[in-house]
Amino acid sequence: MQEKHININGINIFYREYGDPKSQDVIMVHGWSTTGIVWEEVAKNLSNNFHIIIPDNRGNGKSSIPTSGYHIKDYAKDIYNIIEKLNLKSPIFIGHSWGGNIGTLMGAEYPNLFKLIILEDPVYWKMIDAFKTIIPNIIKQKNMPRIEIIKNGINNGLNNLQAEKTADLPKKYSEEHLKKIAFYNRNWALNCEYYLKRISTPTLIILADPYHGGYISDTEYKYHSKIASKIVDFVKWKNVGHLMHITNPDKFIREFEKYTSKKLKINRCN
Fold it and tell me: Are 43 and 16 in contact (CB under 8 A)?
């Protein structure tokens, strides 16, 4: 793994790179209160067969914290520019949570950019709650003792090691940028439907269990699965919460390999 930086329109974007650049390109996008490090275990396991780029989004981790540019389209432009500057060829997009929202928009607005798209428990209707519940709860963790953050992680399905590894993440994002995401994207709960209908790249949406912290309710799933583009497939995981690839990396890798093998006929060399 290599740690690198790239300048995108005056913004310093930090990213991690795994695997052989000659392999199929993959770009992994994290959620709004985490950093690219949350993809580490998945990336290590896939790096034998794939070339993987994992940026820290603007306002997160080791990337710049600009004073503006927190609309979802700004994030999409960042990803597009990373792909262009690094000369990634028809990459596979993987996005978790807010990263899944970015992938939803890009699947509609950037036709032919990606070979496949995989979205993990995106935030659609629940964006309505962003100001009232999600953002305040996330910000609260910044001032918690580390031991309390670890306990919360375990309560949310992480094992002890995972909770330890992710306990410092609340210190690595900007509180101001979270508030700006919620403010500038407050209409996303409605806009997501527009993009879901227009996705033009084969897409898999993996849903967490809403009774275990998943962000998409059964009612929302039934509605969105009906209106989504016909090249969008849905998979539901039972008894798994929102942090799917963190709590269940092996299951996520199997899901990824099943979908890519089906769509791309990739031969594994593990």
Answer: yes
